[in-house]
Amino acid sequence: MSKTTDVISTGQDQRDAWSDVQSWIANASNAVEVCTPVAEYAQHVLTTLQVTPKSALGAVALHTGGILVDDGWVKILGSGCSSIEGDLLIWNGLGEQQISVGLKGTFVVGYDVVGGFFAINGGGITKAGLNHVFYHAPNTLEWEDCQKGYTDFLNWLFQGDLELFYEDVRWPTWRDMLHGLHPTQGFSFDPPLWEGLDIQDRLVRIANMQDIWQMQSSPGKP
């Protein structure tokens, strides 16, 4: 597996990286579903981001509307589709529409249904770990360094132990509830995840993702 040191650069490989991504998906141990892109808009996304499909990020932007992992618990942003809220432009303030969650000095690449964000650190999180993917955890409201560039991040999502990663925010029936979600919906909790109780001691509700993000951006506010 090639290792990308700067995930928003053109890279050195002269071929489209999509064949590599397809290979990783074919060998995935977690459920992975690729959303079909709209070709003209996907090219627009690629051009606006000033990346090339020689990089994993560019390949995902051009060849996918996004990628659903673990039955849609995690949503990797691409050029947009009906199963994912927004796209790489909208999430990063580069499109006509915008999803604003107060993230600066980062490049958002995905999110999950409990309101966590995955973003490439462009210096806005910390001066250490530049170009690493960080996770904004909904149970701490803090950024956690995944210690991976975008390429290794994709591989981890496809093959990593997501049950272990999410063990503090999953409950026994999460998968059944997940199947009933609309793409604009996720899970909210009462009390909120950051209040420190065990997940079994919370009431789980289906809520609009925009409301979940807003609450986590301004915790404690009505």
Give a verbal description of the structure.
It contains eight helices and nine strands. It has 222 residues and is an alpha+beta fold. It folds into two domains: 18-165, 3-Layer(aba) Sandwich (SMI1/KNR4-like); 174-217, no CATH class. Strands 1-2-3-4-5-6-7 form a seven-stranded antiparallel sheet, with helices on one face. The protein has a two-stranded antiparallel ribbon with strand order 8-9. β4 (106-112) and β5 form a beta hairpin. It starts with 17 loop residues before the first helix and ends in a 5-residue tail after the last helix. Mean pLDDT is 88; it is low at 1-13.
Strand content: 15-25%
> Which descriptor suits the 3D outline?
globular
Query: Which fold name fills CATH's third level, the topology of the largest domain?
Result: SMI1/KNR4-like
Tell me the domain tally: 2
Straight-line distance between termini:
47 Å
Order of helices and strands: HEHHEEHEEEEHHHEEH
The percent range for helix content is: 25-40%
Average per-residue pLDDT, rounded, comes to 88
Q: Architecture of the largest domain, according to CATH? A: 3-Layer(aba) Sandwich
Poorly predicted segments: 1-13
CATH class of the largest domain: Alpha Beta
Structural class: alpha+beta
* Rounded Rg: 17 Å
Strand tally: 9
Biggest pleated sheet = 7 strands, antiparallel
Specify the number of helices: 8
For the largest sheet, list the strands in their spatial order. 1-2-3-4-5-6-7
